[in-house]
Amino acid sequence: MAPRGRRRQIFLYLISVVLPSSLLIAFTLRLIDQDRELAQKRLGEERQRRALEIGRELSTALEEAKKQAVGFISNSRGRWIARPMKPPLILIGEFRDTELVFPWQFDSADAGPAAGLREPGFLAGMGRAERAEYSEVDPGQAARLYQNTLAAGTALDGAQTAMVRVSMARALYKANRPDEAKKIDRDVLSLPAEIQDEFQIPFCLYAAERLTASTTDHGAVLTALNPDTFPWYRLAPGALLHGRDILLKIETASPDAKIRGEAGRIRAAILEFIAIQEQAESMQKEFPSLDLRDETTWKLYGRNPWFVGGANIPDGRRVLAVCDAGMSLSEALKLGPEPATSTDGIAITGLQESDGLSLGRSFPNARLILPPEPAGNTSDRWDSRSILSPAIVALALMIAVFGSYLFWKDIRRDLVTAEMRSQFVASVSHELKTPLAAIRMFAETLRMGRLREPEKREEYLETIVNESQRLDRLLANVLDFSKIEQGKRDYRFEKTSLTAVLETAARAMEYPFRRKGFNLRLRFEAGIPDVRADRDALLQAVLNLLDNAMKYSGDAREIDLILEREDAAAAIRVRDRGVGIPESEQQKIFEKFYRIADPRNAGVMGAGLGLSLAAHVVEAHGGRIVVQSRPGEGSVFSIILPLEIKP
After folding, report:
1. How far is CA 140 from the centre of its chain?
2. pLDDT band (50, 70, 90) for residue 374
3. Given a cut of 90, is residue 572 above it in pLDDT?
4. pLDDT for 153-162, tens place per residue?
5. Can you tell me the distance from the alpha carbon of 300 to that of 525, in angstroms, rounded to the nearest whole number?
6. 628: which strand partners?
7. Angle in degrees, CA 306, 310, 316, rounded to 5
8. Which of 249, 241, 250 minimizes the C-alpha distance to 270?
9. CA count, 13 A, side-chain hemisphere, 82
10. Is the distance from CB of 85 to CB of 72 less than 8 angstroms?
11. Which of 201, 291, 488, 613 has the smallest number of CB atoms closer than 10 Å to its CB?
């Protein structure tokens, strides 16, 4: 192909395939990017809408908890809250001037339940008994004095009575009267937790601590201290630590696995209350900076996050409601339009920790974390364009790749064809030049009359005739190839004797074979019927096979021409003992202009048309041409023609 034509072909390919495909891909990728951005925006809006919805339900749940806290404080004049708080409310506080106090700090000692323990008359009676117990080391006498104080004190309040009984049981243990002491402790164990000493320790815990020494009383102690009925949530820090130690002793000493498990459960609950109180004490220190003046907002606080909010009550006091953030979220999810029982992947976090979703103006320092959308759960956001865009990109890529492949294949075919044609011209020129040179040389010799011997004259004339026939065969091949290329090759089928065709071919090749020292052996099976064939075309095909065998015989000089019957067909075989053909090349040799790239064939001239023409002729006769060959062992070319067998 000319360089100018190739440049034009490349330009047309770029304009018609590469440029449109590139523009289509770029446009589609932009559409996909826009769709992705829009989908992300829609997803963000949807997630924010859901967060605001959860924020509204969360606000509803927290306001209910705040009402509960207001009710507790309004109905409670002392420091005791009468009933357990309902989740998510976990703690109640009260604003006093610029301070924040919690239930275990509500009232002063003078006004509290333990105020009677400091009355002078009660202290005098208890002082005499304690001197007998500690100074005189007479626990029996101390027990009697405690008993006298208890019998004489008709006006004793609950705390005074509990303190005398606890002290008397202690003296009885020291006096080696455990049965009487245990009886008193079992009675004290059932006292309400509100009856406490001046250190805010319930007297029942003193009894429980002593009863843990006997494994038979572990069950009773656990029943009394069960957090489902015992108000751990409203005890002072010292009482919680005392209770924790009691449960640890039972968990360590009890031989009963069930008892140990129950003790561990109660101790874990106490530890939770301790953690709540520790975080509450931290909040007390930071209280001024929380700015809880706005009753419509909830502030997030703490490592184990709480929602804290204030409210006014009718008597002028202000109450603080403390709600667990996780419990509040669970309550909110239950209240939504699509109730959920699980908070998996949903969490509340602070502003400084995450850039999560806003919960609304009621939660200024809190954010909501939602789980990422599942990969397989986005089908509702896919429209037809979202599906079509990747398909367009894929199609454009396929067109570009396929067009490139066809272009490359076309260029390669043109290059190969150009090379083959160049080789063909050189080969044909050489093939034409050789017989013409021989004809001219012998003709000029005869014209000058230099030959006197009749035998030499005959030999020169025979050479001229054979070289003319060789030239005729070469021109016939070229002309037939041209007709085949144009689709104008016609065949005249008539009754033809295969034996006669092969004998003619043998005579035509006799001179070149004899000249090069070849021995052509003929073997024709008798009784082969005639076939309908174009005699000249079939003769040309056989001559091409014989000429091919002569060219590629190498040093061997034996060629066989065989005619035999093969089932319902006649087989014409040409066998040589030459260089052979690799199996990978055996189908390619029938292509036009194709020649095997082998150093042993470098000196063999040819146009590369003989086998291609032979294959075309045989196919036109309804037959097939077959090659069997091994490198170094020669080749057998077989023309298989169907026989017309008459009954």
Report:
1. 81
2. low
3. yes
4. 556 888 899 9
5. 109
6. 636
7. 150
8. 241
9. 9
10. yes
11. 488
3-state secondary structure (DSSP) of residue 629 = strand
pLDDT digits (tens, 9 = 90+) for 33-61: 777 888 888 888 898 999 899 999 999 99
| 371 prior amide bond cis, ω within 30 | no
Q: How many residues does the chain have?
A: 647
Q: How many angstroms separate the most distant Cα atoms in the chain?
A: 180
pLDDT of residue 381: 46
Comparing C-alpha atoms, which of 403, 426, 423 is closest to residue 415? 423
CA atoms within 13 A on the CB side of 408: 6
Structure tokens at 586: 């055996």
Beta strand ranges found along 482-593 (DSSP E): 494-496, 519-524, 531-533, 558-566, 569-576
- Which structure tokens are listed for 423? 């080789």
Distance from C-alpha of 260 to C-alpha of 218, rounded to nearest angstrom: 9
pLDDT at residue 9, as a whole number: 66
Helices and strands, counts by H and E, the chain: 17, 15
Token reading at 611:
């086998």
Residue 608's pLDDT is: 65
- Check if the beta carbon of residue 92 is closer than 8 Å to that of residue 321: yes
CATH class of 118-190: mainly alpha
| Dist CA 473 CA 480 (whole Å) | 10
- CA-nearest of 113, 204, 112, 200 to 159 is 113
Question: What residues does 312 pair with on adjacent strands?
Answer: 318
Residues 114, 115, 118, 119: is their CA dihedral positive or negative? negative
- CA gap 445, 502 in Å, rounded: 34
Residue 431 pLDDT > 70, yes or no? no
pLDDT of residue 182: 94
Q: What secondary structure, in 3-state letters, does 460-478 show?
A: HHHHHHHHHHHHHHHHHHH
Taking only the tens place, the pLDDT of each residue in 593-634 is 666 666 555 556 555 677 888 888 888 888 999 999 888 888
d(CA 199, CA 50): 49
Q: Which amino acid is at 252?
A: T
Query: What is the pLDDT, as a whole number, of residue 386?
Result: 57
- At the fourth CATH level, which superfamily is domain 464-642? Histidine kinase-like ATPase, C-terminal domain (3.30.565.10)
The ranges assigned to domains in the chain are 118-190, 464-642
Confidence (pTM): 0.54
Bridge-based pairing of strands 569-576 and 634-642 is antiparallel
CA distance 562 to 257: 104
Please list, in sequence order, all residues whose beta carbon lies within 8 angstroms of the beta carbon of residue 271, skipping any fewer than 6 positions away.
244
Closest CA to 611 of 600, 626, 622, 623: 626
Query: What are the phi and psi torsion angles at 631 (to 5°)?
Result: -55, 130
* Closest CA relative to residue 206, chosen from 160, 243, 171, 231: 243
Block residue for tokens 């000089």:
557
Using DSSP, state whether 494 is helix, strand or coil: strand
C-alpha distances out from residue 433 to 425, 426, 439, 607, 612, Å? 12, 10, 10, 13, 23
Indicate whether 380 pLDDT > 50: no
**Contact between residue 499 and residue 533 where contact means Cβ atoms under 8 Å apart:** no
- Category of 626 on φ-ψ map: left (φ > 0), alpha (ψ -120 to 50) or beta: beta
Q: Is the pLDDT of residue 563 over 80?
A: yes
In sequence order, what are the residues at sequence separation of 6 or more whose Cβ sits closer than 8 angstroms to the Cβ of residue 323?
62, 65, 88, 89, 90, 298, 306, 307, 308, 309
> Rounded to 5 degrees, what are φ and ψ at 572?
-105, 120
Strand-strand pairing, 531-533 and 494-496: antiparallel
